[in-house]
Amino acid sequence: MRFFIPLMGAVSALSPLVVSAQEPTWIDTYEAGLQQAGETQKDLLITFMGSDWCDQCKILKETVLSKEEFIKGASAKFVLVELDFPQLKPKLSERNEPVRAQFGVRGYPVLVTADSTGHPYGEVRYHRNWVTADYLAAIADQSANKATRDEARAEFENADDDEARKQALEKLLGAVPQTSIAQLYLEEFNQLRKVSKDKSPLVRDVVSKERVEKMQLELKTLMGQRRYSDAVALCDEFLAHDNLSQGERQMGLTFKFYSQMELRTFGPAVKTAEALAEIDPDSPIGKQALSLKKRAEAALAAADKPKPVVPVKPKEEGSLVGEKKDEAGTAKTEAIKPTSARHKQTLMELEKVHAELGAAETALAQAKADLEAARAKHEEAHRAEAAAREMGEKRKENQAGSKEEAPAEKPATQVAIEEIEKNVSDLRQRAEEMRKSAEKLRQAAEE
């Protein structure tokens, strides 16, 4: 099976951090690391970091990655590459962005193991209570994925029929980070699509995630530009896909609802909320859909209600006669103008709050979707985490004179869930504040 070398680029301008094999250290450019891996036939260990904003990245680098024990231990089999994505150095982040996108990295910090051609086969996430030895062991364990991948490649090349090819490709792609498949294992993925006729669960999962990510990026742009009609059309296009999961349908309808509310098409928004509630009434999003429906119905009723016309009380005839006529007319105009200006200002403020509210609620909906996905991932990882801890406990029990163990750490997925839950709480509070502001301005506009 043919593979390509990703992002090789021009390697003449290498980083000054590339040193001799006797002095292993971290290289700060992917191209230089890839060249050195090819020359030494070592694999790559690539860290994706946010040095000036990611607290976990700072801790990991200070306590593990910068230590001589780790550098010497890891560099025996790996070329070490550190790719930084700092906020205060945007050019550096931009330089490394193509690598991040190709590897499909979506969280920091993460350590990725890849072969000498740049094809990843493993990931190691941050663990709060791990020490250097734990990370070195976890990195070494990723070699099992590489062995499985290469074994599956041989099985594919020797397969006699499509079913055998399908099984080999599922085994191969199941051994590598799924987020990298669409870029770095595209040929194998397309082969799997062909032999499985797009019916492989792995194909559906990868296609679904790529579709969702693409939609979210496009929606972020459209809503940021207040192109809500285009956002509704994009949601409809997304919802028209076959085999959408429950979560995907909920996400598409949620974004559609908020876009319709911004367009003040309250009738269609009511129907969208009803469709959202019908998917799973007992789920968190299903329960939220009922309140969204009430909100849209209230907005629809208010929009249909005719606004009262307040007549302007005329001045007495005597005050409009003779030389006082112009003065009275001026006074009448001046009395009306401030009220009109205040009303216009109120409407402008209301429109601004509506936009902020829409952005807050869209972010809240996305955070809730992320939370559901994180919880699902946590459930999948729970057994693996528990098994790993059990093996570690048995290993320590067999060591003579072992010390009392520290309390078990939280799994990485649980840490992610807690972070997203806090984000959801903050966004919910922000959205509620925006709703209160919008209601006050609505009342002021109707006075």
TrEMBL record:
| Species per Swiss-Prot/TrEMBL record | Roseibacillus persicicus
Q: What is this protein called?
A: Thioredoxin domain-containing protein
Q: Which UniProt keywords apply?
A: Signal
In terms of InterPro entries, this protein maps to:
AGR/TXD (IPR051099), Thioredoxin-like_sf (IPR036249)
Family annotation (Gene3D superfamilies):
Glutaredoxin
Q: Where is this region: Disordered?
A: 308-342, 380-421, 428-447
Q: Which Pfam families does the record match to this protein?
A: Thioredoxin_7
- Per the UniProt entry, the signal peptide is 1-21
Ranges of Basic and acidic residues compositional bias? 313-329, 380-408
